[in-house]
Amino acid sequence: MINELRLFLAVLLFCLGIYLVWDLCSAGFDLIILVSSLLCFVVAHYIKPKPDDRDDSSVVLDVLDFIVDIPFRAISIFLRAISKPFKGDAGGFDL
What we know:
By secondary structure, this protein is an all-alpha fold. It has one domain. The chain is built from 3 helices and no strands. Helix 1 (2-27) runs antiparallel to helix 2, helix 1 (2-27) packs across helix 3 (59-83) and helix 2 crosses helix 3 (59-83). It is flat. The protein starts with a helix and ends in a 12-residue tail after the last helix.
């Protein structure tokens, strides 16, 4: 029961994040809306139950889990790509 509630809350946060991104594009840029949408996606990722915690194996729940996780993965890949040249052990830029 609690895992379904967590997944429902994660889907609600995901939908709120999508709405905030749409509002960001339609109404004009606002830093607070951008941060709020990113925060919604990150919190949705951490709230949703892990696949190992679920008792049943449902295709619908697996699809919802994947869809909710897409924005978080995109954000984390973007931040890792930006931070990689600034790390000391990376090759960096050769001039």
